[in-house]
Structure formats: structure tokens, C-alpha cells
Write a structure and sequence with these properties.
The complex is a heterodimer. Chain A is an alpha+beta fold. Chain A folds into 2 domains: 198 residues, Bira Bifunctional Protein, Domain 2 (BirA Bifunctional Protein, domain 2, 2-Layer Sandwich); 81 residues, Up-down Bundle (Methane Monooxygenase Hydroxylase, Chain G, domain 1), CATH 1.20.58. Chain A has 8 helices and 9 strands. The mean pLDDT of chain A is 95. Chain B folds into 5 domains: 146 residues, Alpha-Beta Plaits (2-Layer Sandwich); 55 residues, no CATH class; 92 residues, no CATH class; 158 residues, no CATH class; 127 residues, Isoleucyl-tRNA Synthetase, Domain 1 (Orthogonal Bundle). Chain B is 49% helix and 13% strand. The radius of gyration of chain B is 35 Å and the shape is flat. Classes of the chains: A alpha+beta, B alpha+beta. Chains A and B meet through helix 3, strand 4, strand 6 and strand 7 of A and strand 16 and helix 8 of B.
Chain lengths: 285, 693
């Protein structure tokens, strides 16, 4: 199945399960969990079922487009179900079936993997799912988000789209994956991988990045005070992204790292507090 | 009538590492809860898979045992009021216990007479008790990590999706975490969700086994099936499977029905160090390596999938691809490391922190080098040089890519890199052996160089962690200090390191940068415990071990000889007699409360017995001075020499009064006893600690 059909199949499948199809959030982020639909969506009692493709950037993972398994930008397909349905594991397996990956014909292994994000102050319990030995999905029951103990619990399913495409198309090199029937993944992204690797590893201006971090931090705090948690959260995401570039650029020492992570976590918490305040009935606050 | 009860907690995929512990707990907690409920049974058995934790209670009684209950009430004075009527308090107390006031009895207690309610509590029917019991069993389970997933916020390892609960053929009805108990069981997740009906507890295992996609719920059966399959598929290849016990246990903890399949590995990967390949296979991929009779790796792998095989070739292809990708990564890391070389790695150690305030790994290396100098000072010059070199590179591989990816290969990789750099064989072997032994009883460094560097590394880690107050408590030992202490003690004994433990500890502590609280004594005690444990394993009795405790100036090797000698000398009646006398002497000296005694004067002896005792003491001392102390037999002789004191001491105590009026004579006798005490309790052990069998 080609790359775009995989996306459409998953969208169709989860649409039938009652999910809202959300579009990718238009800011750089390290993982789909940063999408406001997930971050804010998991916080209050309000049920939510949605799915979306999320382009995710990991500057340090880029390899100039030379490594057949490494990308600085890749695509996650994320499903958010709150409250987590009782048959959520089965729903997931059926989605694989929809992708022509029949669980009866493959080895599906659920390996303990408890996800956590120190920058979001979030953690959950779950698995990575292996298909014939290849990790294709991260499956998590969120327990804490931005320091808030969650209730009801959200199930988050994150498909690694490139991995699934490589598996489905039996390709050893991600750039050989077919995006549609005539265009390869490599044709679509290779140049971007090359250019962004140069940028992230060599050209990114460290002083500017540090300034962006500081400015966005200030802005985030200011906006939170005004109850404008959505733009504030954008600022927090930007801080996180600039931090990732700084790290790829080799400009972050061990103590720096801890400090900035703590900083981002407290920004995320500020935004979450504002959101919870605005979206919880008064008697429950 | 007694019937079998069955509780199967069917969940989403439990982490493999939880399974064995959970089943152990399930058994213990079930037994405890049944006991609390006064329910009798013949046996409690547990079994299960990553999706079902099952407990079967055989011949569970139909009702709980009746029990005689005695409840203490108010004092007797409260029974009736001044008009002779029962008081409200008495009636209330009686009522609460299902009695009338006139049924209350009076019992004498140390605090005076009290009212008591004595009644027979009829045991309830098991049918009524079981729902609660099952619920409590489920709630009693504690996992290394828990989660919540539904409104009642039950803490459990993973969501519970079905509960099978039977007493005989009857459903035990209850609800927990939003799940109602059933008479059904869930099949393997990948093969459909239609539950299968279970009528009787004994049907559970066979029903699962007879499903279209069989499940082996019994752990032993699953293990045997796996081992048999591994052996047979390896035999087909003409080789053997590496039956790693941990991996086998892990594998049966993530499969309900292990099915093996083998595949080929590109022969080019066999150029990688063996341990690196097996670590990738076992730890990253959970695959079994294939070896020939000599243990040489072969270019194959055996993977395990869950469930009977459809589409085997495609699955094999998938596994092979993943393995190839991982081994390709390993080749990349390995070649990178070879290019980098140990010297560059060593330079990076300065950026790796060891313990806050106790320097980085480069500084730790320096200390280990110095400690090695101290330990190896009497060895030939060449050996000393090799030890120094090995110590210098001992931690270098911590900065390598391979060890960054696979921390369990620390040491081993350093050895490989040293070999690649054409260092002396002694040196590369020593680096490779640096972290040995890996467990309390596993192999020690074979070479002397390896043993000394390893010992120095461990001593520094122990001293540093103790100084940083990172001392193990209870089951918490994050820095594996117990294992390291045990390793150090075993190395000292194995290689006959002739430095008393106390000296070694003092030196290790002295090399540390700051000494606010070095906890030297605690560390000595900590290491002594490991030593004592080894002695216990040799069947050396506890009192003998205690008798060694004052000998801090002796080496562990001398101590172990003394322990063995004393353990057999203990059977000699005269030595036991000497031991009794030693205790008596200690008591006398303690009572006398004299701080400093005058020197012994022969002319003050008035009785024959004290003269005899004194002469024996002289002879014994003289004879001890000539004794060798190299073997167990030497020490046995020393103990029989000491035993010579037994008879004259006996006579002395029988005939001689120590606490006489004449102070000079008294003190002279005490001085005599003091000298004997030193000999019996300080020189080669504290004989006063021996216990009569």
C-alpha cells in the first residue's frame, strides 16, 4: 500500500469509529503528542475522539538524507480516544487489518514501553507494538499531562507511518517507499532532509536560537496571565523546537539541558492550568 | 461439598517482567485471604500468561469454619444498676455481639473482673464469601508499576478486560473496575475476540489448549514446548540453540503459545565480537542465537512468535530484516569505536560524571590506578606495568558507541578494543574482566592483572558510594554495591590478596577527594557481611564467624583458614573448655573494673595452680611464636596448643580464689588472667564467642 493510501485508509478507518479528522497543527513539533488536540484534549472530562497526521521534527535524527532508516522529519498518525474504549486493543488490530496487515498472518507483539515526556510533564503506561519484530506503533494510556493526574484516561495510538509503509511495501530504505504509485518518498523529502541537516547541524545561529527561546518564554508567560492559553501554548512549542535545534547543534551542556527542559515543562503547565481553569465547570474547580 | 474454585484475571498485555512475580503474589495472597476467612482447601495453584493471571483453589470447603469468639466488654461493675437491672451499656454490648445481657460471662483479668461475650460464630457459606474474596485477591496484587484506566481508578498493571470466576460449575458473581465476572475466557487477541465458555474450573486449561488457536496457560508446559521447539529447529540446522534461561523465561512471559522459526544471518556479521551479536539478538530482538558444539556462533537466528504458524515465510522475512538492520547498526557503532580508539575514549571520560562531588570518570580512573599501585606493590615490575595500563583503560569503553547502546557490554568491549589496538594480552584480558563477577556466584576474573584492577575498581566504587551516603537499604541497591562488595571479597580470597580488608578500605577512602563522612566502619561492616555469608556457605557455624570479628589486622585469607580450623577444632572438648574459661575470665575482669593492671610478678604466686597456669601460659606463648600460619593445619595446631590452657585453667578456678583481700595478690592474679584473655580472645579469634553444641 502506498504512503498516501496508508494515510487515507487510517483516516477512513478511524472516521468510521467516530473520530474527528483533525488537520496537522501548523507549527514544528517533536511528536504528535504536542498537537493541542492531544495536549489540551486529554486534560478535562470532556470526551474526545480524533485522529490526525502529524509531521514531527527531530533535528538531531537527521542524516542529510544518507541513512536509509533515519529522518529529521517524519510522519506520525495519531489517534486520541477519551475515555479509552474497552476494546481499544482490538480496534487497533482491526486498523492493521484495514492496512492489509492481518494480525493472524503476522506476529504482533506488545512490548512494555511506558512513554514519558519530560518537556510536557507527561507520562503514560503502554506498549510499543512490534510487527514481525519491527516497531510500528506506540500505544499509551496517558496517566499524567502537564502535571495533572488525568481522569478519564485517554488512549493514544501513534502509528509510525514510514515504518508501516516500509513494512507494507517490503522496502529496506525509507527513501524507496512509494508515496503514490509513481512518486517515491525520497523524491518528496530527500532534498529537505539534506538542507535541514545542514541547517540543524551547522548553520543554525546559536545566539539567535537562544534569543528565540528567551523571547518565546517571556511571551508565553505574558499570554498565560491574560488567559490566552492557545497562543501561549504556541510559544511553548516554539521554545521546545528551538531547544531541539540547539541540541542538534551541540550547543547544550548537561546542566543546560536540564534547565531548559524544566523551563518548557513549567510553560506547558502554565498553559494547561489556564485551559483547565477555562474549561472546567466552576463547582468542580 | 468441597469444590474447586477458579479465578482468572484476564487483562491486556502484562509486561513480561511482571508475570512470575504476579503469580507468586497471587498464590501467597490467596492463601492468606482464605486463611483470614477460615476457609479450608487442599491446595492453591497459580498459572497464566501475559493476558491471564489464574489461581485455582482445590477442594475449597463449602463453608467457613465456625469459630468461638470472645469479646471483652465493660467492667463487671457496669453489668447492673443499683436497682439490679441490666445497664444500657451491658445490653448494648451484648446486642452488638448477638447475645442478651444475661448471656454475658465474667472473666477475671489483671485489671479486675470484666464482662465478656462468648459466642460461636457460624462460618458463612463459601458461595457468599467468594465474591468478596475474589475481589480482595485482585485488589491485593501489587505490580512494579501500576496504572488506572476506568472510573473506579483501580490500580493494576494493565486494564482488566474479563474475569472468569467459578466455584465448581457456579459463577461467582461480582464486579470490579467496571468488569462483571463471567464463565468465559478470552482467546488470543490477534485471533479474534469471541470468548469461549468454561463450565468447570478443570476445563479451563484444556479448553484453552483446544481452541482453534491453542493457548498453553500452564507455565511449565509452555516452557517445555518452547525448549523442545528450540532444540528441534536448531537440530534441523545441524546446530544447537543457545538456551539462555533469562530469555526463555522472558519469552514464555510474552507468548501464550510460543512457536519458533529460524532464519539465516548474513555471514559478514560474524566478524563482530560474539557478545555484541548475542546481545543484539537476545536483548534487542529477543531472538535465540545458534551455536555449534564448541559454542561458536553460527549465521542463523531463531525467533519466537505467538501462536501457530500461518504465513511463516513472510514473518521470517520480517524478523530477518529487523535483525539485519540492528546488526548493521552494531557494525556501524563497532567500526566507529575502532576508529576512535581507547585513547580518545579515555579523554572523553572527563565529561562523564561519576558521583556528584566525587569527580568524573577520569578522576575515578586516577584513583583506581593509585589503588592498583597499592595492591600490586609486591608483584614483579612487568606485572605492575600491565596492571597500571589496564587500570588506565578500565573505564574508557564507557565513552564508546557500543557501550552507549548496550551498557551490559561494558568491560567486554574495552577488552575487544584493547585487543584490536594490539595491547599486551595481559592488559586486554584484564580490561575485559574488569566488571567480573557479574553476579554473586558467577565467574571471577581469571588473570591476576584482571583481578587486581577489578578489585581496585570495586573498592573505589564502594568507598565513594558510602562517602556519598548512597548506602543500600532493604531491597534498594541501585548501584549494585552488594554485588560489588561480594565480588571484591571473592577476588581477595581467590587471588590471595595479602592486605587486610581494613587497610584496603582505609586506602580507598583516603584517595577520595572529600571526607566529611567517609563511613569507613560502615563499609567494613558491609563487606564483612559478604565475607560472613561466604563462610556460612562453607557450613562454618555462626559462633565461629563471630569469633573472627576482632581480627581486623588479618587478611581475609588468613581469616578463612582460621575459620575452617576453628570450625573443626570446636569439636575438641578441651578447646570448648578453654572457651568457657575465656568467658569466665571476661566476666571476672569486667567485674573487677580495674583499668590498668600491674605487670605480672612470679614471686607473688602463692598457689601451685597459679604457678602451673603461668608456666603453661609461658610454654603456650613460646610454642605459638614458633608456629607457622600458612595453612589450615597450622591453625589447627595453634588451636590445640591454646587448648593446653584448658586443664590448668580449670584447676585454677577450682582451687584459687581471685578476689582475695590482699590487693597485690588479687591484682597479680587478674594480670595473669588478662594475659590469658588476650591469648584466647584476641590473638587468633575470640574463643569466648564459641557456643556449646
Amino acid at each position: 500500500m502506498n504512503f498516501q493510501d496508508i494515510i487515507h485508509t487510517l483516516e477512513n478507518y478511524w472516521k468510521k469509529q467516530g473520530c474527528l479528522i483533525v488537520q496537522p497543527y501548523d507549527l514544528e513539533k517533536g511528536a504528535g503528542t504536542f498537537n493541542p488536540a492531544t495536549f489540551f484534549g486529554s486534560l478535562t472530562e470532556k470526551p474526545t475522539n480524533c485522529c490526525y497526521v502529524e509531521p514531527s521534527r527531530r533535528p538531531a535524527d537527521g542524516r542529510y538524507g544518507d541513512n536509509p532508516n533515519r529522518l529529521g522529519k517524519f510522519h506520525q498518525f495519531q489517534v486520541i480516544l477519551k475515555p479509552a474504549p474497552k476494546n481499544v486493543q482490538k480496534l487497533y488490530l482491526d486498523s492493521l487489518k484495514a492496512l492489509d496487515l492481518d494480525p493472524k498472518k503476522h506476529d504482533v507483539r506488545w512490548i512494555e514501553d511506558d512513554w514519558q515526556s519530560p518537556t510536557l510533564g507527561a507520562s503514560g503506561v503502554g506498549w510499543e507494538v512490534w510487527l514481525d519484530g519491527m516497531e510500528i506503533t506506540q500505544f499509551t494510556y496517558f496517566q499524567i499531562m502537564a502535571g495533572f493526574t488525568l481522569k478519564p484516561i485517554t488512549a493514544e495510538i501513534t502509528y509510525g507511518l514510514e515504518r508501516i509503509a516500509m513494512f507494507s511495501q517490503k522496502k529496506d530504505n525509507v527513501f524507496d517507499v512509494m508515496w503514490n504509485d509513481t512518486t517515491t518518498y525520497g523524491e518528496m523529502v530527500k532534498e529537505s532532509e539534506r538542507q535541514f541537516s545542514h541547517y540543524h547541524f551547522e548553520q543554525a545561529d546559536i545566539e539567535n536560537l537562544r534569543r528565540y527561546v528567551a523571547e518565546n518564554e517571556e511571551e508565553c508567560k505574558k499570554l498565560c496571565k491574560l488567559g490566552l492559553y492557545l497562543p501561549a501554548y504556541d510559544c511553548a512549542m516554539k521554545v521546545s523546537h528551538y531547544f531541539n535545534i540547539l541540541e542538534a547543534r551541540g550547543a547544550i551542556s548537561v546542566s543546560d539541558r536540564t534547565n531548559i527542559i524544566t523551563k518548557i515543562r513549567s510553560l506547558a503547565k502554565l498553559c494547561a492550568q489556564e485551559y483547565v481553569k477555562a474549561n472546567t465547570p466552576e463547582e468542580k474547580l | 461439598m468441597n469444590k474447586t474454585a477458579l479465578l482468572a484475571i484476564e487483562t491486556e498485555h502484562l509486561p513480561a517482567r511482571f508475570l512470575f512475580g504476579a503469580l507468586e503474589q497471587l498464590k501467597k495472597n490467596t492463601e492468606n485471604i482464605l486463611k483470614e476467612n477460615n476457609l479450608s482447601y487442599s491446595s492453591v495453584n497459580t498459572f497464566g500468561t501475559y493476558r491471564r493471571l489464574c489461581v485455582e483453589i482445590k477442594e475449597l470447603a463449602a463453608k467457613a469454619a465456625d469459630i468461638q469468639k470472645e469479646v471483652k466488654g465493660p467492667p463487671v461493675a457496669m453489668l447492673k444498676d443499683k436497682d439490679g437491672n441490666y445497664t444500657k451499656q451491658a445490653e448494648g454490648f451484648a446486642q452488638r455481639n448477638g447475645l442478651k445481657a444475661q448471656d454475658l460471662v465474667i472473666v477475671e483479668t489483671p485489671k479486675g473482673p470484666f464482662l465478656y461475650a462468648k459466642c460461636l460464630v457460624k462460618g458463612q457459606k463459601t458461595d457468599i464469601l467468594l465474591p468478596n474474596i475474589f475481589e480482595n485477591i485482585i485488589k491485593s496484587l501489587v505490580f512494579p508499576k501500576n496504572m488506572v484506566w476506568e472510573d473506579s481508578c483501580l490500580h493494576f498493571a494493565r486494564p482488566i478486560r474479563n474475569i472468569l470466576a467459578l466455584y465448581g460449575s457456579k459463577l461467582v458473581k461480582f464486579e470490579i473496575a467496571g468488569v462483571k465476572s463471567t464463565k468465559t475466557t478470552l482467546p488470543m487477541l490477534s485471533f479474534g475476540a469471541k470468548p469461549a465458555k468454561i463450565n468447570e474450573p478443570q476445563d479451563y486449561i484444556p479448553t484453552l489448549k483446544n481452541l482453534e488457536q491453542p493457548i498453553l496457560a500452564d507455565i511449565k508446559e509452555r516452557k517445555q514446548t518452547l525448549i523442545k521447539a528450540l532444540n528441534s529447529v536448531a537440530a534441523k540446522l545441524g546446530y544447537q540453540a543457545d538456551l539462555d534461561e533469562d530469555l526463555i523465561n522472558e519469552t514464555i512471559s510474552f507468548t501464550e503459545h510460543p512457536v519458533v522459526l529460524s532464519g539465516d544471518m548474513d555471514i559478514k556479521f560474524l566478524k563482530l565480537p560474539k557478545e555484541l551479536i548475542t546481545t543484539v539478538l537476545k536483548k534487542q530482538l529477543r531472538m535465540f542465537p545458534v551455536v555449534d558444539k564448541q559454542g561458536n556462533l553460527q549465521p542463523h537466528f531463531i525467533a519466537v512468535r505467538d501462536g501457530i504458524s500461518v504465513n511463516q515465510d513472510e514473518v521470517r522475512h520480517g524478523f530477518k530484516n529487523v535483525m539485519t538492520a540492528r546488526l548493521t547498526d552494531a557494525v556501524f557503532f563497532f567500526e566507529n569505536d575502532i576508529k576512535t580508539g581507547l585513547d580518545k575514549m579515555f579523554e572523553k571520560l572527563a565529561t562523564i560524571n561519576f558521583i556528584d562531588g566525587l569527580g568524573n570518570m577520569s578522576q575515578k580512573t586516577k584513583r583506581v590506578e593509585e589503588l592498583c599501585t597499592f595492591i600490586s606493590k609486591d608483584l614483579p615490575k612487568e606485572t605492575q606495568e600491565h596492571i597500571q595500563k589496564a587500570a588506565h583503560y578500565s573505564y574508557a569503553d564507557l565513552a564508546s558507541s557500543v557501550v552507549y547502546e548496550f551498557s551490559e557490554l561494558q568491560g567486554y568491549m574495552g577488552g575487544v578494543y584493547a585487543q584490536k589496538a594490539a595491547m599486551e594480552k595481559d592488559v586486554s584480558t584484564a580490561i575485559g574482566e574488569f566488571y567480573l563477577p557479574l553476579s554473586a556466584s558467577s565467574a571471577l576474573p581469571k588473570t591476576l592483572c584482571g583481578a587486581i584492577v577489578s578489585l581496585a575498581g570495586k573498592m573505589d566504587s564502594l568507598a565513594a558510594n558510602f562517602a556519598a551516603n548512597q548506602v543500600p537499604s532493604g531491597s534498594q541497591d541501585p548501584f549494585a554495591l552488594r554485588r560489588q562488595a561480594m565480588g571484591a571479597v571473592r577476588i581477595i580470597l581467590d587471588k590471595n590478596i595479602n592486605i587486610p580488608l581494613q587497610e584496603l578500605i582505609n586506602k580507598s577512602v583516603a584517595l577520595l577527594p572529600k571526607l566529611e563522612n567517609s563511613k569507613t566502619d560502615e563499609l567494613f561492616g558491609f563487606m564483612w557481611q559478604r565475607f560472613a555469608f561466604l563462610l556460612e556457605q562453607e557450613q562454618i557455624s555462626a559462633d565461629v564467624i563471630e569469633a573472627l570479628a576482632p581480627l581486623k589486622d588479618k587478611t581475609l585469607n588468613q581469616l578463612i583458614l582460621i575459620a575452617r580450623a576453628l570450625n573443626s577444632a570446636k569439636d575438641s572438648p578441651s578447646l570448648m573448655q578453654a572457651s568457657q574459661s575465656a568467658k569466665r575470665i571476661s566476666n571476672i575482669l569486667k567485674k573487677s573494673e580495674i583499668q590498668t593492671l600491674p605487670a605480672l610478678e612470679q614471686k607473688l604466686f602463692s598457689c601451685n595452680q597459679e604457678k602451673v597456669l603461668y608456666n603453661t601460659l609461658r610454654d603456650v606463648k613460646e610454642s605459638l611464636n614458633k608456629k607457622k600460619t600458612a595453612t589450615e593445619t597450622d591453625f589447627k595446631e595453634i588451636f590445640s596448643t591454646l587448648a593446653l590452657l584448658a586443664a590448668p585453667l580449670e584447676d585454677f578456678f577450682k582451687e584459687v580464689m581471685v578476689n582475695v583481700e590482699e590487693i597485690k595478690i588479687k591484682n597479680n592474679r587478674l594480670a595473669l588472667l588478662k594475659e590469658i584473655q588476650v591469648l584466647l580472645t584476641k590473638q587468633v579469634s575470640d574463643l569466648s564467642k564459641l557456643q556449646i553444641k
